[in-house]
Amino acid sequence: GAGVSQSPRYKVAKRGQDVALRCDPISGHVSLFWYQQALGQGPEFLTYFQNEAQLDKSGLPSDRFFAERPEGSVSTLKIQRTQQEDSAVYLCASSLRTSGGGTGELFFGEGSRLTVL
Amino acid sequence: SQKIEQNSEALNIQEGKTATLTCNYTNYSPAYLQWYRQDPGRGPVFLLLIRENEKEKRKERLKVTFDTTLKQSLFHITASQPADSATYLCALWYSSASKIIFGSGTRLSIRP
């Protein structure tokens, strides 16, 4: 597609449920990032992939969060046993260049808004 | 840990004036600094990038400066228009890291 696509756009989960958020990056983009954005805050880094390799997962808040990109294209962010504090917008971004940022601008999707009741 | 501070208060500017947004950071300087625009309910959109060895970068009505001594970047929008109303995010990338760190953003409102 022309841009980064995320699904679902909105997800309501009951506390304790597992959720899976999908990201389709721009074709050919090597780098893929996941960010978490709370209301009124900037995006907080969660994890980074270069192709299928997860090079940095230092931002994942707990072991309930898991991300994968098995074929170096589509990525899934999974949250197990959701808690209310997980409620946020989850943004996916891709970049043509390796090692993520620097001279490579990030192309963001519209985000997946997760609400945990 | 690295901290990024942007104007915490929303900025209200009269149409036609120049809007100036500030991004301050602590500790060591990044290799690159980027500015993004974010509209409500949308993902951020890249605007400009400036390298640590550059003092100033321009693009149409936008201008970014980077002062590694002050550890500060300024983002200017000249001849501001109501359509420029959005949240503006500053983002830093360090060559030793693989992630881009974002500030909390500044909400800019341009009134007619």
Give helix % range of chain A: under 10%
Our count of helices of chain A gives: 0
- Round the mean pLDDT of chain B to the nearest integer and report it: 92
Unreliable stretches covering 5 or more consecutive residues of chain A = none
Strand content of chain A: over 45%
Largest sheet of chain A, in brief, is: 7 strands, mixed
Q: Which assembly state applies to the chains in this document?
A: heterodimer
Number of strands of chain B: 11
Structural class of chain B: mainly beta
Low-confidence stretches of chain B: none
Describe the structure.
The complex is a heterodimer of chains A (117) and B (112). The mean pLDDT of chain A is 93. Chain A has strands at residues 5-7, 10-13, 19-24, 31-37, 44-50, 53-56, 65-68, 75-79, 88-95, 107-108, 112-116. Chain A contains no helices and eleven strands. In chain A, strands 2, 4, 5, 6, 9, 10 and 11 form a seven-stranded mixed sheet that branches. Chain A is mainly β and 117 residues long. By secondary structure, chain B is mostly beta strands. The mean pLDDT of chain B is 92.
Secondary structure layout plus pairing:
The complex is a heterodimer of chains A (117) and B (112).
Chain A: E1 5-7, E2 10-13, E3 19-24, E4 31-37, E5 44-50, E6 53-56, E7 65-68, E8 75-79, E9 88-95, E10 107-108, E11 112-116
Parallel strand pairs in A: 2-11
Antiparallel strand pairs in A: 1-3, 3-8, 4-5, 4-9, 5-6, 7-8, 9-10, 9-11
Chain B: E1 4-6, E2 11-14, E3 19-25, E4 32-38, E5 45-51, E6 56-59, E7 62-67, E8 72-77, E9 86-93, E10 100-102, E11 106-111
Parallel strand pairs in B: 2-11
Antiparallel strand pairs in B: 1-3, 3-8, 4-5, 4-9, 6-7, 7-8, 9-10, 9-11
Looking at this protein, list some descriptive labels.
heterodimer; A: 117 residues; mainly beta; 7-stranded mixed sheet; 4-stranded antiparallel sheet; 0% helix; B: 112 residues; 6-stranded mixed sheet; 11 strands
